């Protein structure tokens, strides 16, 4: 079929929205009609050429939500009409990681996904007979996409798909960091560095876990305001003295749980150092620049602090995303404040500009009726 999609033709150049071809879903694959897709930093990171594993041409986009239009052979868990959220982090349910409760890093399709192909090693996207690679196994800056069944989470049809799209990446990452990775305990004191999509999700996750104090640190007063809306009990502007101030605010000890959601390795260090002696746990969510390292004084670890990393918030996507969406429908998560701009596919480059200007939290591309 012919579809409209935003193609990354060349690193550092704007995406080009155009008609390309999308082949039928093969065994274990599903055709999804996108209804909404968020514009995320990772898309821009790849478009800019900074991502060492990036490739072009490809169709970017990974924060998608839509409706199943057709299923290929051997698809058992999804049917035409189902509402789905796309998962760059799939859940096959069978690999050694899927069978362990300790991780969400499914091993089933990693190699091919990283190279830009569907699990059988081929692409469904093409132009004039030449294959175009898939991005993150999702390629959702497009009217339609073909994805593996194991990379689609079936969500409640009650959930508006524009909001549901945010659960495909940043929001679930933040919520999950607090709920799955750190498993924040009731009554604890938490610090969240960064109040973008991920940090705000972490603030909401700490609140849902029953944290007593949630201190959010960011450089933007507007974002700190959003953090208060998500449950931050205290907010402060970041800076070189952030650790000192947090230690002072917490009776000289630091916080039970700290979260880093900035991607800045200096802030990661601050997050480690503001965790409490004895048992403080620092969860790192941010993606650092190529070659950057995290500096940690070993004494901080010997005296009982721990560091954890979190990919997609430790959420096993097919099980976890529908549960988080249900919590939203139950009124426990407030998604609307994150959607700052509604744009069309043709305005995708404007979405990147808004993100670079830190204008709002998320621009969401709308493709038409659910
Ligand atoms: N682990 C994962 O699975 C995963 C998933 C999505 C995104 N990420 C990463 O998480 C990070 C955050 O993503 P986002 O979309 O929320 O980004 P964002 O850019 O919207 O938010 C980052 C925030 O950090 C703040 N900040 C910058 N310097 C600071 C400082 N010194 N102290 C305190 N705050 C500071 C900024 O003001 C901004 O609000 C990025 O590195 C992103 O790549 C990771
Ligand atoms: Zn993302
Ligand atoms: Zn798996």
Summarize the structure.
Helices cover 27% and strands 25% of the residues.
Present the secondary structure layout.
Elements: E1 2-8, E2 16-22, E3 29-38, H1 41-48, E4 58-59, E5 63-71, E6 83-86, H2 96-99, H3 110-115, E7 125-127, E8 130-134, E9 144-148, E10 152-155, H4 161-164, H5 170-181, E11 189-193, H6 197-208, E12 213-218, H7 221-230, E13 234-237, H8 242-249, E14 257-260, H9 265-273, E15 281-284, H10 298-302, E16 306-309, H11 317-329, E17 339-343, H12 348-356, E18 362-366
Parallel strand pairs: 4-8, 11-12, 11-14, 12-13, 14-15, 15-16, 17-18
Antiparallel strand pairs: 1-2, 1-4, 2-7, 3-5, 3-9, 3-18, 5-6, 6-10, 7-8
Bound molecules: nicotinamide-adenine-dinucleotide and zinc ion (2 copies).
Question: How would you characterize the overall build of this protein?
Answer:
This protein is of the alpha/beta class and 370 residues long. It has 2 domains: 2-168 and 334-366, Quinone Oxidoreductase, Chain A, domain 1 (Alpha-Beta Complex), CATH 3.90.180.10; 174-311, Rossmann fold, CATH 3.40.50. 27% of the residues lie in helices and 25% in strands. It has helices spanning 41-48, 96-99, 110-115, 161-164, 170-181, 197-208, 221-230, 242-249, 265-273, 298-302, 317-329, 348-356; strands at 2-8, 16-22, 29-38, 58-59, 63-71, 83-86, 125-127, 130-134, 144-148, 152-155, 189-193, 213-218, 234-237, 257-260, 281-284, 306-309, 339-343, 362-366. The strands form 3 sheets. Strands 3, 5, 6, 9, 10, 17 and 18 form a 7-stranded mixed beta sheet that branches. The radius of gyration is 20 Å and the shape is globular. The two termini are 20 Å apart. The chain binds nicotinamide-adenine-dinucleotide and zinc ion (2 copies). One zinc ion is lined by residues 91-92, 94-95, 97-98, 106-108.
